[in-house]
Input
Amino acid sequence: MKSKFMFGMIAIIASLVVNSCGSSDIRQNVSAEERFELGKKKFTDGDYLDAIGEFEIVKLQFPGSSVADDAQFYLGESHYRQNEYLVAAEEYQALKRNMPASSLIPRAQFQIGMCFYNLSPESPLDQIHTRRAIDEFQTFIEYNPTDSLVRDAEAKIKELTTRLAKKLYDAAELYMRIEYYKSATGYYDLVVEKYHDTPYAEPAQLGKVKSLVLRKKYDDAKQEVDKFLQKYPESSSRDEARSIRNDIEERLKSKPSSLGSSLK
Output
């Protein structure tokens, strides 16, 4: 499937180049710089398809020119503006691979993150693009810690991380509803451990307590509810947590023989 997609893209690009070369605007003696400016004007005017043709000519006919990296970057930008995010990401990657000394590398890296950010779906769906976006933004921050776009990248990471946390939290809640308490405990624990800095960590911690109580794991539940109250002393659920702790303590006193038993 991937090879067919790439073959199709190559055919489209080749067609664009041929059509561009045959247009009345193009002359044989147009320099790389002039060709790039033609493409840039079309890009600015929103004629992204025509702009791609111009940038491809620069890329293919003037690979060593002073505007070769600009043309490569704007190939990515043109596809990005057309919501062709996977193609755009590949063009930005090509800039990184082939022109690593370009001053446009930081922006290209950020844009790769943006491509996968735009492909990231809502939390119930598969999150492969979400994870890829996080990785790309983290790479951007690591190599460009003083860049003006770092704060934006950090905000995007936080948003995407929260989305991943929600997916796990929703799974835990589903297992609670269908009374698969052991699985619920596992998913709550993943949220607490992996996404402790998201809004879902607090309810996941309390959810873990409830799932342990339902499994009659009272010793473990007591430890976890104490952690909750210590970590979230101002929580709106603190009264509920205290009530659960009191109930756990009563169960530990009255039914010591039930420790360690399991429902699910």
Observations:
- The first helix runs from residue 2 to 21.
- The chain is about 75% helix and 0% strand.
- The chain has a mean pLDDT of 89.
